[in-house]
Specification:
The structure is a homodimer. The first copy, chain A, is built from 20 helices and 13 strands. By secondary structure, chain A is α/β, with parallel strands linked by helices. Chain A has an 8-stranded parallel beta barrel, surrounded by 7 helices. In chain A, β7, α8 and β8 form a beta-alpha-beta unit. The C terminus of chain A is likely disordered. Chains A and B meet through α8, α9, α10 and β12 of A and α8, α9, α10 and β12 of B.
Chain lengths: 504, 504
Amino acid sequence: MPKLIDITELILRDAHQSLMATRMAMEDMIPACADLDQAGFWSVECWGGATFDSCIRFLNEDPWERLRTFRKLMPNTKLQMLLRGQNLLGYRHYEDTVVDRFVEKAAENGMDVFRVFDALNDIRNLRRSIAAVRRTGKHTQGTICYTVSPLHTTGDFVEMAEKLMDLGCDSICIKDMAALLKPQAAHDIVKGIKESCGQDVRVHVHVHATTGVTMVSLMKAIEAGADCVDTAISSLSLGPGHNPTESLVEMLEGTGYTTRVDKAKLVKLKRYFNTIRPRYQEFLSNITGVETEIFDSQIPGGMLSNMESQLKQQKAGDRMEEVLLEVPKVRADAGFPPLVTPSSQIVGTQAVFNVMMGRYKVLTGEFADLMLGYYGETIGPRNPQVIELAAKQTGKSPIRDRPADYLKPEWQELRSTALALKGCNGSDEDVLTSAMFPQVAAKFFLTREQGPKNLGKDPHAAPAPVAAAPAPAVADTGKGPVRTTIIYDIKLNGNTHQVTVSPA
Amino acid sequence: MPKLIDITELILRDAHQSLMATRMAMEDMIPACADLDQAGFWSVECWGGATFDSCIRFLNEDPWERLRTFRKLMPNTKLQMLLRGQNLLGYRHYEDTVVDRFVEKAAENGMDVFRVFDALNDIRNLRRSIAAVRRTGKHTQGTICYTVSPLHTTGDFVEMAEKLMDLGCDSICIKDMAALLKPQAAHDIVKGIKESCGQDVRVHVHVHATTGVTMVSLMKAIEAGADCVDTAISSLSLGPGHNPTESLVEMLEGTGYTTRVDKAKLVKLKRYFNTIRPRYQEFLSNITGVETEIFDSQIPGGMLSNMESQLKQQKAGDRMEEVLLEVPKVRADAGFPPLVTPSSQIVGTQAVFNVMMGRYKVLTGEFADLMLGYYGETIGPRNPQVIELAAKQTGKSPIRDRPADYLKPEWQELRSTALALKGCNGSDEDVLTSAMFPQVAAKFFLTREQGPKNLGKDPHAAPAPVAAAPAPAVADTGKGPVRTTIIYDIKLNGNTHQVTVSPA
């Protein structure tokens, strides 16, 4: 009997986060839910920081309502979320009782599996949220952020797995957000965890496809004993996204492993999302191939594009090369944190600052906090000279304790803030929404009543922007795909003319 | 010491054949040759039927001159070609002395490695060309076309390898043109060949990337003992193309295998071909993701698009579903040939005919020949009723002997035909060009003097055709990529105005 390999389907969260800037509207997910529910996945990942943020920032959707709808439409499948440990879905540490409250509410609204990670792999930042999930009786997945540095060894990752199991996790996830996990490393870490924590400890493997090697890493992880792998329906896979679910299923044919998914459902889902993808053309990642230079630079794709846009804002787009050389230095000074939200942004932005203004002439508040220990401990020692600069610039002292120990109870204050916002419905869920993204939530509460905004567009109505061509204003004549009209604002002899160009 | 795995780089032949309709001009290949030569590849595939055809049909290039240029520019690397056995580079069987002559001339002009295959895996169709290559002292690679059918077993492929080795081949290639080779099958076939033919028999593995599983197949083939794998520089990889060379190299890190390629050269090559790819926008495959439905239909992508265009020409684009159901029936009636040029076209076209005119109401000449044995033997028995129809329709008798045995010496006639063509230079090379593609060669000889025609276009000068947008007339100001100016002919109040739009 071949061993059954479970699959976590990513299409409702990380797939569209990685490939279409997290813009997929609930309206476009709903028609797929029945098939997703019946396809035989171990879980469907459908919630996390970026999707929550995007809901209220761009889509005028209540993320809690989205969760409840998933629950209703997928009664037979475990719903899974990604939780940033003590950061919850935000970018700062929350005080412990807020962590408790958030987890309770997520569970109450329908969440089944909590994948909990910390950007620095600091176990102290995970303790409270893991305990909170355990209290709800839901599945607690402790997460190891995989990274590559001169310091990280297989042994370190295995040791972290042991600590997570000691905290009572139900499973371990190896999370490779930058597609750096090569086959042999995948094999060795999974094998190490199984040998050290027990063969019956569930190991899940999450990889991105960016570098073109991680499908093989999934195979080697499976051979080493991995129980569940993360993939995405092929129509929203590859590039900075994930390996295709259908390929994973086919890959195992004839091996000692198999899956329990329904291939006919996968075909239906693929075809459905093939119709959805072009609706988000303007948000689609323009990377469709592989990128292996990241193995040397260790700079994830998302971080690259962030730094690029920062440089362009400073009209210094030509200094990217210098920034790329600066990143490893900044990362080394910071004690080699994994590069994942928010550490990737913090390190990247500081590298940009160093190039633009001189090395450590100006520290961002976040980078100073990172140096001073306010995000937690790093695997390597941090550069004492930069710590000193950070202390001097901020007037804060370096800390070694768990960062959240320094926070005062804040639920009441968060609650008052939220209740004072126009449109807040007074629920704990609204308070948590406001706590995660204060400014964005304030605006969202004001517009919530207008209902969801689907940013997807009929692909025939919106021509893709052409390289170096002016961005046209588009007027849909409403007469179907071939009748699009483009309106250009064109300057002739100093006067602006609006010119309408219709196809012949 | 890790075992050294060799790489055959495909970018100059199969990569652009699969991804940009074989249109890459020699002019765009030349700047890459020095790096390709020094990158450490076992061989560089650079010649074959489609590239030869494309040279004279579209690019006004002499394919023999292309070969000699490669030889000059890549003195340190083995040049490799794909040869269709008794079909050489054409679509029919050639008489034995023509086969000999072609191979001699290819070797003389610089070819080092001949990968010889037959679409039906009929060893008799390979014997003469293999013997011809052996006489030149060049590397003879006997090829097994991998396919999936109710009849094909691992044992069949291993047995074919044995026969190829008995003919004196220097190595065996498993050629998976449709990306159907799954990891376990790859492993089992390589292992079988090594066990049966000897561990020192070189096994090469050629796969396409279409289904998203074959990078794993390469890994399992390597673990089973494969000596060389085929990949393409990442900027022209994936989709219906191949797995990326850079990813293959990275994938092996830490395993018991390594490569001897120079990673810095790969980066240079990637960046170079990244600048070439957009020049061929209009020819680019629009498939960038994976497609796994082919595992069930077993219809390669190229065959699909062929059938689609045939149906559209018949204004029957809506009958594709019926054709897809018909293909497996036609293939079964034909004794389960692998679906590769030319058998894929022959089976596909007959399936279209069956749907449009009733099953076997009309047979194409090629399908009749296939049924009557004029292409060789198939693994399974062919449907006697259809054989009878074929005999009746064509007046030919079924044969069981080697098809080329029925051919009369034809070199003198081919030579006379060629020499009568205006512009023919009288060389054996020209005779062979004319023998391969008579009509196309005749036209090519007439225009050869005008020199190569590069179909690549400055991507900034030629906006990709946007859905439903008007195609603008374009004027390149020659001041580099960001200065392109677009001139629109626009009708206002009945008068045509030329409006020049420049980027801000």
